[in-house]
């Protein structure tokens, strides 16, 4: 197979397995897919014996530990296929020759035992695994794409006696029938006598201890977070716009240094459970500032939450901490004009953008349908209900609509279902811009401006500021290989690249005329439509395009200025 050559440019969105850019996850983080635990570095090692070398400069989730979604899918299929082959071989050998001395080792390889060295005695053979254990071991759920092989298996190792060609499914059916016959003959040989039931003899065996139920992963992470908060100097906070809100008294501060001083002076003594009260019943992550991270007991400084947790566990004998599970906290180091991710060192224009990005490092619940990831299982269920239930639902009133157009019409007309709400008077709006304009015009609030923290440029529009910061002060942009222009997203780059390539991939199904862009084709299709959108107000002549109406007005009604 010819290898695919590609031009590689190192960056924060490069996959370690294919060097592609796009949607990616951390290769050593624990994720959950269809209820199963996945760590992609472990799957690479177990399936292919491939170990990934990490950068010594970066910690967990650094740029050298990323893997894209297509590679995850291929790795998942390969790991599942290896497991299937091992289990099928094990099952086949058990039922093909029950007296055979061959067995599978722990690594899935065949281990042969010489029959001359083993004395065989007739003993009562019990089933090695119960039905439940077999189902857990070999999963035949919907996620199994491959079934047992139907073709006959005729080639075996040299030490195994030759057999006739057999079908694995027939062997399994025959073995089950043989077991039934054995059990029926045993019952006939020892008929039950009609006697009084004797009391069961007391046995000296102790009752089996009940297995402890595993505590949910979210509960363990939350308990770890509570202990770290109790014994370290992390600063928990909530985010309200540009301000950090105290989890204890709800005061808001725009300057992170002032917020930390408030926590040191006002909340030196605190109740741990209060910091988690805003979660309710959700298994969420607590945002914490780790700028002055120290142990409260011995004042030893630390850089990472994992280090201080290990210190508390070993040095201060806090055995309630479970170091095998994660800590239910998201770490930050926030300063007034520097918003940098503590995990991957990526820069952002505002604290809001930073918090949204940091959350992406902890999204472990993946949608089986579209592949989107979410922070909690509750958020994933909400997404499935809204997006994949087969119904068009309004997320505010939960009304159901037959088509997407009806839903959009409802959201446009129903003011109660508008997303944005004025914090002063409670009026609702369907866009963030209209809400801000209302606050300036009606409540005389100052018009917001956006100052670039790196170069000091001031913008009146939030979108323009974010675009400027992304293009000028980060590497998160897309560069045209023809002219070197930068773009904020891939869609704009692809739209621009057509100017250089001249490709016309959108063809009209009526007249076969080709266009470079989809919107140009849609505008062209009005020519073939019986409905004309633009009508002359004087002579009632109809036109498919506005430019045609303008030309008509200039030619036939030059004295009319407005139309």
Describe this structure in words.
The model is unreliable at 1-11, 100-169 and 174-206 (pLDDT under 50). It contains 15 helices and 27 strands. The chain folds into 4 domains: 9-112 and 131-152, no CATH class; 218-343, no CATH class; 388-498, no CATH class; 504-556, Classic Zinc Finger (Double Stranded RNA Binding Domain). Helix 1 crosses helix 2 and helix 5 (217-231) crosses helix 7 (305-315). The protein is of the alpha+beta class and 563 residues long. The strands form 12 sheets. It has a 5-stranded mixed β-sheet. It has a two-stranded antiparallel sheet with strand order 1-4.
Primary descriptors:
33% helix; zinc; alpha+beta; five-stranded mixed β-sheet; zinc ion binding; disordered N terminus; 563 residues; RNA polymerase II cis-regulatory region sequence-specific DNA binding; 4 domains; 15 helices; DNA-binding
Topology:
Elements: E1 24-26, E2 31-33, E3 36-38, H1 40-48, E4 66-68, H2 69-96, E5 102-104, E6 110-112, H3 131-137, H4 168-189, H5 217-231, E7 235-240, E8 243-246, E9 252-253, H6 256-266, E10 286-289, H7 305-315, E11 329-332, E12 339-340, E13 347-348, H8 351-360, E14 365-366, E15 373-374, H9 377-387, E16 392-393, E17 400-401, H10 404-413, E18 420-421, E19 428-429, H11 432-441, E20 450-451, E21 458-459, H12 462-473, E22 478-479, E23 486-487, H13 490-501, E24 506-507, E25 514-515, H14 518-525, E26 534-535, E27 542-543, H15 546-556
Helix pairs in contact: 1-2, 5-7
């Amino acid at each position: 197979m010819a290898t695919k050559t590609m031009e590689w440019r190192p960056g924060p969105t490069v996959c370690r397995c294919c060097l592609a850019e796009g949607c990616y996850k951390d290769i050593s983080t624990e994720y959950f897919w269809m209820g199963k635990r996945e760590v992609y570095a472990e799957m690479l090692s177990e399936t292919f014996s491939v170990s990934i070398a990490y950068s010594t400069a970066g910690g967990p989730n650094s740029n050298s530990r990323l893997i894209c979604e297509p590679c995850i899918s291929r790795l998942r299929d390969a790991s599942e296929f290896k497991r299937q082959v091992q289990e099928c071989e094990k099952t086949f050998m058990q039922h093909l020759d029950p007296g055979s001395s061959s067995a599978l080792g722990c690594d899935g390889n065949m281990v042969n035992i010489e029959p001359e060295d083993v004395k065989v005695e007739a003993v009562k053979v019990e089933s090695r695994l119960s039905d439940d254990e077999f189902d857990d071991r070999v999963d035949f759920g919907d996620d199994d794409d491959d079934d047992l092989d139907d073709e006959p298996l005729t080639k075996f190792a040299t030490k195994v006696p030759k057999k006739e060609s057999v079908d694995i499914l027939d062997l399994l059916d025959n073995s089950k029938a043989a077991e039934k016959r054995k059990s029926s003959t045993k019952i006939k040989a020892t008929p039950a006598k009609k006697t009084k039931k004797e009391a069961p003899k007391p046995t000296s065996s102790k009752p089996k201890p009940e297995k402890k139920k595993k505590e949910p992963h979210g509960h363990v992470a939350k308990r770890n977070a509570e202990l770290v908060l109790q014994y370290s100097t992390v600063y928990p906070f909530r985010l309200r716009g540009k301000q950090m809100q105290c989890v204890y008294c709800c005061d808001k501060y725009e300057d992170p240094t002032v917020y930390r001083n408030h926590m040191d002076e006002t909340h030196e003594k605190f109740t741990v459970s209060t910091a988690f009260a805003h979660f309710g019943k959700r298994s969420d992550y607590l945002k914490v500032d780790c700028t002055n991270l120290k142990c409260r007991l011995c004042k030893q400084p630390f850089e990472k939450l994992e280090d201080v947790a290990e210190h508390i566990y070993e040095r201060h004998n806090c055995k309630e901490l479970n170091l095998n599970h994660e800590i239910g906290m998201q770490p930050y180091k926030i300063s007034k004009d520097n918003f940098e991710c503590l995990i991957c060192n990526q820069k952002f224009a505002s604290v809001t953008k930073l918090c949204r990005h940091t959350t992406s490092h902890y999204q472990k619940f993946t949608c089986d349908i579209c592949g989107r990831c979410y922070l909690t299982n509750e958020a994933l269920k909400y997404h499935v209900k809204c997006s994949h239930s087969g119904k068009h639902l309004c997320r505010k009133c939960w009304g159901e609509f037959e088509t997407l157009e009806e839903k959009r019409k409802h959201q446009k007309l129903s003011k109660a279902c508008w997303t944005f709400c004025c914090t002063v008077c409670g009026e609702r709006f369907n866009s963030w811009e209209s809400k801000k304009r209302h606050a300036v015009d009606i409540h005389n609030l100052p018009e917001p401006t956006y100052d670039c923290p790196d170069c000091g440029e001031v913008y009146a529009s939030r979108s323009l500021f974010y675009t400027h910061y992304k293009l000028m002060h980060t590497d998160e942009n897309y560069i045209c290989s023809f002219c070197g222009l930068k773009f904020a997203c891939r869609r704009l780059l692809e739209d621009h690249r057509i100017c250089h390539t001249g490709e016309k991939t959108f063809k009209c199904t009526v007249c076969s005329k080709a266009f470079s862009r989809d919107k140009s084709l849609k505008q062209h299709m009005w020519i073939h439509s019986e409905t004309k959108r633009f009508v002359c107000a004087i002579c009632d002549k109809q036109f498919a395009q506005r430019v045609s109406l303008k030309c008509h007005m200039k030619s036939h009604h030059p004295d009319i200025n407005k139309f």
